[in-house]
Specification:
Layout lengths: L1 E6 L8 E6 L9 H5 L4 E6 L2 E4 L6 E10 L2 E8 L4 E8 L4 E3 L2 E5 L11 E12 L8 E11 L4 E10 L4 E3 L2 E4 L7 E4 L2 E4 L8 E7 L3 E3 L5 E5 L5 E7 L8 E3 L4 E5 L5 E11 L13 E2 L9 E3 L6 E2 L4 E9 L5 E4 L1 E3 L6 E10 L16 E5 L4 E3 L6 E3 L11 E4 L9 E10 L7 E5 L14 E6 L1
Parallel strand pairs: 4-12, 5-26, 14-27, 29-37
Antiparallel strand pairs: 1-7, 2-3, 3-5, 5-10, 6-9, 6-11, 7-10, 8-9, 11-12, 13-16, 15-22, 16-21, 17-20, 17-23, 18-22, 19-20, 19-24, 21-25, 23-27, 28-30, 30-35, 31-34, 31-36, 32-35, 33-34, 36-37
Length: about 450
């Protein structure tokens, strides 16, 4: 690693994102123009706070991304950090005074879209004599051959006191219903002073059942996730990893389905924020308390992005059956009738869109011949709403979670115009997170008598 000591500057802000995008200008001629396309390159670096003198170093990622660019690189100007922080770069970077140039990191390979993504790990420490609250700036310029370079700025600050970070960042394949997963729980203090008692807050999506501890409280939020808030006593010295021995036993229950994201967040108890809102927390009977114990030698530098950690459980197969709910309505020509149609989750799996941010399910309603739908119900849109013309079918979406045993139905107001003919249909429209286990009941008729 090459160490560069640098200058100081202005106030600490949030995330800085750089995007350098090269596009052809004017008329695109054809194959010759494509051959000379310089490609695209981008980079980004998060603002960072390091502990005061004596704190462990912090590894911060400087990201570099390239699609079709030649010799992508990032050049960092450290003059704005003098007296505030020092920065150490990998030995494959080139240092000239207070300027450091790093190519795309060795070993970076294209993804399925042809984009190469690499991370330059930079180790930051407080400069000797840097005071609590000092801030400086780091300018970084991303470029490639044939591309106009583009510069952005990040801020590095110094803070004295404890700084608790979560060390968990896991992606787990092969977990299935009935398994008990040992959830990693690990924290470290990246500050220059010991931390006292801490609060640990975890969230387990629907279908995951965490073990019970005496010093934790449990509740359920609006999307059926289990929220756990634990008060953990002890002293957490700088640089020492603390973890839950043998992990937190998490049972994968019958409702678990698809991808699951377990989050955890650590903070000093003395300065902890408000408890999770809209969750009633209660204690459970338990034989043991959740304790975090010191493990290994002091960490220096520390690689952790913040106070939050994440564990992804990938593609839990689970069993479930979403059933189309049809209907029969009666009436004469000229009548206005209401029909309730939709889908039902016979479980036991619970489609849960909280990881993707999408819907947990939806259905397609095709009305029977001879009727006119008088209005679009809330949450439903005609399938041809962007094309104009008379609608012929509607798609209706439910929310983020589709609990087992519940139905999602929507009332449609229909005017009977005649002549009566072919029945309509309700069909499961959205196979989330996968096609269910009984496709034979994914459609049902809507008849007009």
């Amino acid at each position: 690693m090459t160490t560069v000591r640098v200058p100081r500057s202005r106030a600490l802000r949030a995330l800085t994102v750089l995007a350098v995008v090269a596009t052809a200008t004017g008329m695109v001629a054809g194959p010759a123009a494509a051959e000379t396309d310089p490609g695209q390159v981008s980079g980004w670096f998060n603002d960072l706070t390091v502990g005061a003198a004596g704190a462990p170093g912090r590894v911060a990622p400087l990201e570099l991304s390239s699609t079709g660019a030649t010799a992508p690189r990032v050049t960092v100007d450290l003059t704005g950090l003098a007296g505030v922080a020092t920065a150490s770069f990998p030995d494959w970077c080139v240092t000239e005074g207070t300027s450091v140039t790093c190519p795309m990191p060795p070993g970076a390979t294209p993804d399925e879209y042809g984009t190469v993504n690499g991370t330059v790990p930079v180790v930051f420490r407080a400069a000797p004599g840097a005071v609590d609250g000092a801030t400086g700036t780091l300018d970084y310029t991303v470029g490639a051959d044939g591309l106009e370079p583009y510069t952005h700025q990040a801020t590095v600050g110094v803070r004295s006191g404890p700084d608790l970070l979560d060390l968990v960042d896991e992606r787990v394949q092969g977990v299935d219903v009935g398994d008990v997963h040992a959830l990693a729980v690990a924290v470290v203090n990246a500050g220059d002073q010991p931390a006292g008692d801490l609060r640990l807050t975890l969230r387990f999506p629907v279908g995951l059942q965490p073990a019970s501890y005496r010093n934790c409280r449990y509740g359920t939020d609006a999307v059926l996730a289990t929220v756990v808030v634990c008060t953990v006593r002890g002293t957490f010295a700088p640089g020492i990893r603390h973890e839950l021995r043998n992990g937190l036993a998490t049972t994968v229950g019958p409702a678990a389905l698809g991808d699951k994201r377990i989050t955890q967040f650590v903070e000093p108890l003395a300065t902890a924020g408000p408890l999770p809102g809209n969750v009633r927390l209660t204690r459970r009977e338990a034989d043991h308390a959740l304790r975090l114990r010191p493990v290994g030698e002091p960490m220096d530098p520390i690689t952790a992005t913040g106070a939050g950690g994440t564990t992804y459980l990938r593609a839990i197969h689970g069993a479930f059956d979403v059933v189309a709910v049809g209907a029969t309505v009666t009436g004469a020509v000229g009548d206005t009738v209401r029909v309730n149609v939709g889908i039902r989750n016979d479980g036991p799996g619970v489609p849960d869109g909280t990881v993707s941010g999408g819907n947990a399910g939806g259905f397609l309603f095709t009305p029977p011949a001879g009727v006119t739908v008088l209005a679009d119900p809330a949450g439903c849109v005609p399938t041809n709403h962007d094309e104009g013309g008379a609608p012929t079918a509607w798609v209706c979406w439910l929310g983020a979670v589709f609990p087992a045993g519940q139905s999602f139905t929507v009332p449609f107001e229909l005017r009977i115009d005649g002549p009566m003919g072919a029945p309509g249909e309700i069909r499961v429209y959205y196979d989330y997170p996968r096609p269910d286990d009984d496709p034979a009941n994914d459609a049902a008729p809507v008849t007009l008598g």
